[in-house]
Write a structure and sequence with these properties.
By secondary structure, this protein is α/β, with parallel strands linked by helices. The chain has two domains: 2-63 and 146-217 and 310-380, FAD/NAD(P)-binding domain (3-Layer(bba) Sandwich), CATH 3.50.50; 85-140 and 218-307, D-Amino Acid Oxidase, Chain A, domain 2, CATH 3.30.9. The chain is 27% helix and 27% strand. The chain has helices at 13-22, 56-70, 95-105, 117-123, 146-159, 203-209, 276-289, 338-349, 356-359, 365-368, 375-380, and strands at 2-3, 6-9, 28-31, 48-49, 81-83, 86-91, 113-116, 132-138, 142-144, 163-165, 170-176, 179-184, 189-192, 194-197, 218-228, 240-243, 249-253, 256-260, 265-266, 299-307, 314-317, 324-328. The strands form four sheets. Strands 6, 7, 8, 15, 16, 17, 18, 19 and 20 form a nine-stranded mixed sheet that branches. Strand 16 and strand 17 form a beta hairpin. Helix 1 packs across helix 8 and helix 2 (56-70) packs across helix 8 (338-349). The longest helix is centred in the N-terminal third of the chain and has 15 residues, at 56-70. The radius of gyration is 21 Å and the shape is globular.
Length: 381
């Protein structure tokens, strides 16, 4: 029997970032079911840092993560961010929706601004003439080195004596006399007074093993594919570009273009595979919105983005199961929010308030709580 102060289930970005924070003053064990860490969602991210992305709770977490990502501790061995402006485009007839988004986002991200169609094409010459009515520019958006972030947290956790176990799928969980006992598929047992459910798409399954009601995790598949950039185009000067209705985005990736239909297809927890129909649809809309004109996909993959029904992460103790802590539902924002979410989660486990810099941006523990208004009914529905 291995005993810890805290056991974390899941070795993606969520699990290792929280493990890094907690191992500063607690013994931490992390259990990952796959043979390698970050095999599913984390390892398949489009790797962006967008302060305008998501609702107000997500924006608060993202903005609160920036200082860490710009100036990480020494266990992060390379720069984590590089500039990649975001250009959000409204096709003809959708300009009012973009104006409202800019007004909402500018409360926390004041440098986000609207640009007209001509300036949008100047910023991204690949946009088709006449496609855009209006666009929104986030000039301080960034690209994230996801591998460097994840491995920095792993190194930091291990340096603080945290233990990481791979190929350790939790098969059973029980609680007795103030301690949780987790049993893996080989019969090995692990014990701690606090268990953190950071299992991503499998979070509700892990909760079920512990006799805890689900929060309604929705694993939504997203397909990504690569295209060759048109000849003569300097991709290093292109912004990340997508449409206001969430039907496509294109990101420069060296001499290629990373593209997505921005699809959200509900499926069971699994090793996600790309959808050829979604790729064909995305090619149609991208070729209509741009001058790329490509029909040949170089490669494709897919990942799962794991939301709860109200699309706000669940971070906090389960009210009816002592010592069971939710750290799930990060959706499509888990990489860019990881530093702040880990600090918030660690504070709540220690019995403290959400850190002050996060609270100053309008986010409280109640916003993340398992028993926040409506989430139970939504999950059950």
């Amino acid at each position: 029997m291995k005993s810890y102060d805290v056991l974390i289930v899941g070795g993606g970005m969520a699990g290792v970032s929280l493990g890094f924070e907690l191992s500063a003053d607690r013994s931490v064990g992390l259990l990952e079911m796959e043979a390698t860490l970050a095999f599913h969602t984390t390892g398949r991210s489009a790797a962006t840092f967008l302060e305008s992305y998501g609702g107000p709770q997500i924006r608060a977490l993202t903005i609160s993560s920036r200082v860490f990502l710009e100036n990480p501790p020494e266990t992060f061995e390379s720069a984590l961010l590089r500039p990649l402006p975001l250009l959000f485009v409204a096709p003809e007839g959708r300009g009012d929706l973009l104006r409202q988004l800019q007004a909402d986002v500018s409360l926390l991200v004041p440098d986000v601004r609207l640009v007209d169609a001509d300036e949008a094409r100047g910023l991204n010459p690949l946009l088709a003439p006449g496609y855009a009515e209006l666009a929104m520019l986030e000039p301080r958006a960034m690209e994230i080195d996801v591998h460097a972030v994840h491995q920095g947290f792993v190194r930091g956790m291990r340096r603080r004596q945290g233990e990481i176990r791979t190929s350790t799928k939790v098969a059973g969980a029980s609680y007795c006399d103030g301690l949780w006992t987790l049993t893996d598929a080989q019969g090995e047992r692990f014990q701690a007074p606090v268990v953190v459910n950071a299992a991503g798409a499998w979070a509700d399954e892990v909760a079920g093993l512990a006799g805890v009601s689900p929060v309604g995790i929705m694993p939504l598949r997203r397909t990504i594919f690569m295209l060759a950039a048109p000849g003569g185009v300097d991709t290093s000067r292109l912004p990340l570009t997508g449409d206001i209705d969430g039907t496509w985005y294109v990101k420069p990736e060296g001499p290629q273009l990373l593209c997505s239909p921005a699809d959200e297809v509900l499926q069971p927890p699994s090793d996600a595979r790309p959808d050829e129909i979604q790729i064909a649809r995305a090619l149609d809309v991208i070729n209509a919105a741009t001058t790329i004109g490509s029909r040949h996909v170089r490669s494709a993959w897919a990942g799962l983005r794991n939301f709860v029904p109200d699309r706000v992460p669940v971070v906090g103790f389960e009210p009816v199961a002592e010592g069971f802590f939710w750290f799930a539902g990060q959706g499509g924002y888990g990489i860019q929010t990881a530093p702040a979410m880990a600090r918030a989660g660690a504070a709540l486990i220690r019995g403290e308030e959400v850190p002050e810099d996060i609270r100053q941006r309008g986010l409280t523990a109640a916003d993340l709580a398992r028993d926040r208004p409506g989430i139970t009914a939504l999950a059950e529905h």
